[in-house]
Amino acid sequence: MLENLLMIIAALLLGIGGGYFIRKMIAEAKISSAEAAAKKIIEEANQEANSLKREKQLEAKEEAHRLRSDLEKESKERRSELQRLERRLDQKEESLDRKMNSVERKEEELKQKEEDNMAFREELTNLHQQQLNELERVSGMTSEEAKDVLLQRVRNEIEHEMIVMVKDMESQAKAEGEKKAREIVTLAIQRYAADHVTETTVSVVSLPNDEMKGRIIGREGRNIRALETLTGIDLIIDDTPEAVIISGFDPIRREVARLSLEKLVSDGRIHPARIEEIVEKTRKEVDSQIKEEGERATFESRVHGLHPDIVFLLGKLRFRTSYGQNVLQHSIEVAHLAGIMAAELGLDVTFAKRAGLLHDIGKAIDHETEGSHVEIGAQLAKKYKETPGIVNAIEAHHGDVDFHTLEAVLIQSADAISAVRPGARRETLEAYIKRLEKLENIADSFEGVEKSYAIHAGREIRIMVKPDRIDDYTSIQVARDIVKKIEGELEYPGQIKVTVIRETRAVDYAK
Q: How many whole angstroms from its chain centre is CA 25?
């Protein structure tokens, strides 16, 4: 058993040793084979490298040969071109030589001709001088004197012709200008055909029945007296059936009175406290109406950007008349006429319309401020930042100052056109209104007078005085002084009744 084991171990050892030697021999054989293969690869690589080297050398030689051939060809072409250029230069040089020779010959010929011309010029100069000497001898004048005489004669002839031409041109321009002006004015009038708007000094309020007259008068006349005192107008209640006549030259006051009376009649409650409340409310409504009228005027005339106070003053012109012509309608008409004429003449239409609308703005407050409506209007325009051109147009529309712009001339023309249209104005009404304004101004000039109202078509003036400054006895003296001043300064038909009213009110509230 042991032997068998030993034999197995010996066999194993022998197998392991044999396997080792066999693997070693195999490995050595592989290494030798690999070395031989490597040598072969190296030799092949060397051979291939040598082959590539020879090929590249050949290619390089061929490229160098080709480049040398191209260079030689290019050099040959350039030499040929240079030779051709040299031949052309030689030909040009020969041509220039020939031309130089020709120029030199021509210069010599010109020099000879110039010498001949100089001699001829000297001969002509001598002949001219001889002729001048002969002319001076024959005429008895020197050449300078002859020139002066000739120039003076030519100047006189030219001046005469210029004068004749200027006169012809002036006559032609005047004729054409007058014709064109007539065409423009006629066109303006045709394109703007406004209605004739006039105002009267009375308004009529219809009543539902004659019994209402008694309620309007009130107990002992307190209602009618309160209404007349608050509005400054005169209520005429006569035999006219179902009607009350409101008389007063101030159209705004008359409108306030008319609307107030209509509201009182409609309401039925007629007593002094209610009258005072209604009159105050109506005044606010009329102010709103004035504002709307001013805005309507700006919209109708397409004049924008006016100050709100100016718009309000324009609205007041709706209740103002001049020679019977409504001033606001007249201003709108002047704006349209001036705009049409400005368009025809190629002037500033917007400027002309603005100036035309504002030219009589002073009439809105001329009864409240000293000065003519032209001066007041210019002051208002300056106050509300209107341009100097607008101010000048207002100042110049009655010829008080010089015109600064052509549009200002158009305003004067448009104002005249609007005023002289048939039926546009009534002289008597304007004089009547001026007289009433003068009457109120006389009363207002006295110290202590609070308000004055000309009523009864100027046959009476009612004067409200301040009770804290004028007592009952002084009011009698004030009435006499006003009468004397009216008699000295005012012309009027018949007589004028002066009524001085002194009223003290005590007001308190129950709480």
A: 120
| CB-CB neighbours of 236 under 10 Å | 15
Region of 242 on the Ramachandran plot (φ > 0 left; ψ -120 to 50 alpha; else beta)? left
- pTM for the complete prediction? 0.47
pLDDT at residue 493 is higher than 70 = no
Identify whether the C-beta of residue 403 lies closer than 8 Å to the C-beta of residue 409.
yes
* Beta bridge pairs of residue 202: 247
List the beta strands (DSSP E) in 163-287. Answer: 202-206, 234-236, 243-247
**pLDDT (tens digit per residue) in 393-447:** 888 888 778 888 888 888 888 887 776 554 444 445 566 677 888 888 999 989 8
Q: Answer whether 200's CB lies under 8 Å from 209's CB.
A: no
Of the candidates 424, 388, 425, the residue with the CA atom closest to the CA atom of residue 408 = 388
Task: Label residues 360-372 b or e (16+ Cβ within 10 Å = b).
Answer: bbbbbbbbeeeee
Task: Name the strands in the sheet holding 202-206, side by side, starting at the edge strand that comes first in the sequence.
Answer: 202-206, 243-247, 234-236
Quick one: 373 exposed, middle or buried, by C-beta within 10 A (0-12, 13-18, 19+)? buried
User: What is the C-alpha separation between 125 and 131, in angstroms, rounded?
Assistant: 10
Burial of 297 (0-12, 13-18, 19+ CB in 10 A): buried
CA angle at 316 for the pair 310 and 321, rounded to the nearest 5°? 125
